[in-house]
Design a protein that fits this description.
The chain is mainly alpha-helical. It contains 8 helices and no strands.
């Protein structure tokens, strides 16, 4: 074995493998072409894989008679072809899932336009609120602060913060009208 973990072929076997390859390569390539339905590149890859396997198994394979060596080559060719077929088939079955996962979704320009309009309208509504209500609304919805944190920072009661948020929420619901995602029924589940 070398540093990469690969089995090294003993020097005394190199000449034997060279003769083995020369004696069987065209014959094996013909069988590979039949198995791959004439795909010469795939057939060449299969032959290379089989001869690599033969080189790794050469310590056992070299003692077999010529007909047993050919049978081993054909069996290995068939096994490698089947394994490659299964790998390609598994990849083909997973292809739609892979494409769906990494392909961007189509832009919904109508929804994007409606969201942009609603967002701009919400900014206008908040901008028109009284200063304290506007500050509390921005601290809650923009800065994501809790009511207790807002009350502590502004030095007001937590109930005052809730009252301002309730009023601000009502103004947003009324001002956004059809852009409001929860409808105008009760305001429940609205911006919190």
């Amino acid at each position: 074995m070398d540093d990469s973990g690969e089995t090294r072929i003993p020097r005394r076997h190199v000449a034997e493998l060279d003769r083995f390859f020369a004696a069987h390569d065209r014959w094996l390539f013909g069988h590979a072409c039949v198995r791959t339905r004439g795909d010469r590149e795939l057939a060449a890859d299969l032959v290379q894989d089989v001869f690599e396997a033969a080189a790794r198994a050469w310590a056992r394979l070299r003692g077999h008679a010529g007909n047993r060596q050919r049978a081993w080559l054909l069996g290995t060719l068939a096994n490698k072809d089947i394994s490659d077929f299964r790998r390609r088939e598994a990849f083909r079955r997973r292809q739609p899932d892979i494409q769906a996962r990494y392909q961007g979704t189509a832009a919904d320009t109508a929804a994007q336009a409606m969201n942009a309009i609603a967002l701009e309208r919400a900014r206008e509504i908040i901008e028109d609120m009284p200063p304290r209500q506007k500050k509390i609304a921005l601290m809650r919805w923009q800065d994501r602060m809790k009511a207790a944190e807002i009350a502590a920072e502004l030095g007001v009661a937590e109930g005052t913060v809730h009252a301002h948020l309730h009023s601000a929420r009502g103004k947003l619901v009324a001002g956004l009208e059809r852009y409001y995602p929860f409808g105008t029924d009760s305001g429940k589940g609205a911006v919190s």
